[in-house]
Amino acid sequence: MPRKVASSVVRAVADMLPPNQRRLAPYMADVMTAAIVHLCKTEGQARLPGLGVFVLKQRPERMARNPRNGQRVRAAAKEVLRFRAARHALAREQAAG
């Protein structure tokens, strides 16, 4: 997770905890991230009710372009983690914004 995003998540978790437990916030964020990664590797997805679904998708081998010289190169097949937001989460965000 990028440092700026990670620190904002940790700060948000810490703000929700009682003052005597705020030191646990970084650990809680790391455990949640590890749990999502573990579920995606073992089951192919991790559902967070009310928030959305993390899904592990297979990307086939493809032809890509080297941005430095424009030469076409072969990009290997790989697994990527995708997030699909729940409909109510999107609706809640649109109503708030």
Give the structure's gist in a few sentences.
With 97 residues, the protein is of the alpha+beta class.
Defining traits:
alpha+beta, three-stranded antiparallel beta sheet, elongated
What does the model show?
With 97 residues, the protein is an alpha+beta fold. It contains three helices and five strands; from the N terminus they run ααβββββα. The two termini are 25 Å apart. 1% of the residues are buried.
* SSE-based structural type: alpha+beta
Main-sheet strand order equals 1-2-5
Integer average pLDDT: 88
Helix proportion? 40-55%
How many strand units? 5
Number of helices: 3
Gyration radius from CA atoms, angstroms: 18 Å
- This entry's quaternary arrangement is single chain
Give, in order, the helices and strands. Answer: HHEEEEEH
Largest sheet: 3 strands, antiparallel
**Which parts are unreliable, with pLDDT below 50 for 5 consecutive residues or more?**
none
Strand residue percentage: 25-35%
Principal-axis shape equals: elongated
| N/C terminus separation | 25 Å
